[in-house]
Amino acid sequence: MAQYVMAPMRRRTSLMTDDRPYARSNASALHVKIKLDDEDLGEDDKLEEDESNEYVNLNVGGVLFRTSQRTLSNISDTKLSNLQKSDPNYNAAKDEYFFDRNSAIFPWILDCFRHREMHIPRSFCAVVVQDELLYWGLKDSRLSDCCMKTYLDSLDEIATNEILLREFNEIPMDVYAVESSINGKSSCRTIIWNFMDKPQSSRWAQVWSYAYLTLTALSILTFFIETLPEGRVRITHDNGTFVDTDISNHKIRLLVTTEPHPALMVIDVFCMIFFSIEFIVRLIVCPRRRRLMGRAMTVFDLLYLIPVWLTTTIYWIDRDFWRYSSRILGFLVLQAFKVLRVFRIFRVMQYFRGLRILWLAVKASVRELILLAMFILLAITIFACFIYCAEIFNENSFDNAVIGLWWALITMTTVGYGDFFPESWPGYIVGGVCALTGIILIGMPVPIIASNFHAYYGLRIPVEQDKEVPQQKHIPIRKRKVSPIRPV
């Protein structure tokens, strides 16, 4: 059975509640005047007034509401202001209009028609309120000032949470927005792509990812061992004599006169072949080659693979090619490009959610980090000038202001190498203020980055349980280029 909900009565005025004789006499006079005015009305006017005050029965979600037509006509161009008995929602047998909507919110909707503004409890979901306002033809501007801020903040929080979920489930190096099937059947390219790029797609894909990570770590470890004297052997000529050079720099001399241990060379060549095949296959099966070629990781891979193939090929053709002094610079440049293999470690982020959380937290704090860099640049410029002037009478330190830039940066970061330091009381004062300023500047963005990290870290449980991210509707709010954490 339908439940009847009576409309709340308005507050009684002082004229209605005052017990003073003067107030009662005024009320009686007013009552007499209204009665006389009613007697003066014509029959047509009374009929029009009765029609405007005609009661309307509204059945909203099984709960019956009763109000007047005049109340519903207070706000024009809405679903309730133009009710007609020819409406499909009208039930002639029960003399009511039925709407299958949320009955808990409707009293506040009806109250909006009475007072031309709407108040909503804070316990209501902002998205549900937005749906109801849209259905009944009411605008957000009808919300009162006391409720508008809470309403907009709730929508902003929901939209922010949606952005966090979407970013958390996207791999940072992503070129993966592809269709998983063609004509209803999985294509061979898609299967290979998912195998190489999505470890969670199958057990063999996980095995592949572990093998890839192992070889990546092995390649980087090989690079470090090759820089040790114990990891290299002397190069000999065909006649058995050692290769020598007149270069005085011991690091360059080590690279020119020695070569990596044969075991390290085998590992290096194997990793080179593996990563080359992996790069070619990835390029062939990638659904978006242009996007793949535009990624920084792809550029790093090319800058690593091309020099390593070039140096390896030249080594097997002519082992003494790089031993001439005129070619040493080219040899060092190619060796420097081989260092780019260490950037391959960034691919690990797509396999470990903890690294992805850290990446997203830093990414969300880019503006704060840029602002920090600008403040530090300004501060080191000022303190470099101050320390140069403070130590101008000291001949043993700070020969120029450029050295002051280096000193100010190291002092503000509280590293303090000790290669340059003040030796006078004015210099001590400048150094102390510089160190304190660095602590303050560096400490400012830390809470923002930590808050962003906790915001993303809080999403790890539903994602780790492989829960599907709910498809939330578009929340029409203003776009703001800020971090996900709203400042207090």
UniProtKB/TrEMBL annotation:
SUPFAM superfamilies: POZ domain, Voltage-gated potassium channels. The keyword Transmembrane applies. One of its GO terms (cellular component) is voltage-gated potassium channel complex. It comes from Mizuhopecten yessoensis (Japanese scallop). It is found in: Membrane. One of its GO terms (molecular function) is voltage-gated potassium channel activity. PANTHER family: POTASSIUM VOLTAGE-GATED CHANNEL PROTEIN SHAB, VOLTAGE-GATED POTASSIUM CHANNEL. The chain crosses the membrane at residues 207-225, 263-285, 297-317, 329-348, 369-389, 401-421, 428-450. It is a multi-pass membrane protein. This is Potassium voltage-gated channel protein Shaw. Keywords: Ion channel, Ion transport, Membrane, Potassium, Potassium channel, Potassium transport, Transmembrane, Transmembrane helix, Transport, Voltage-gated channel. Pfam families: BTB_2 (PF02214), Ion_trans (PF00520).
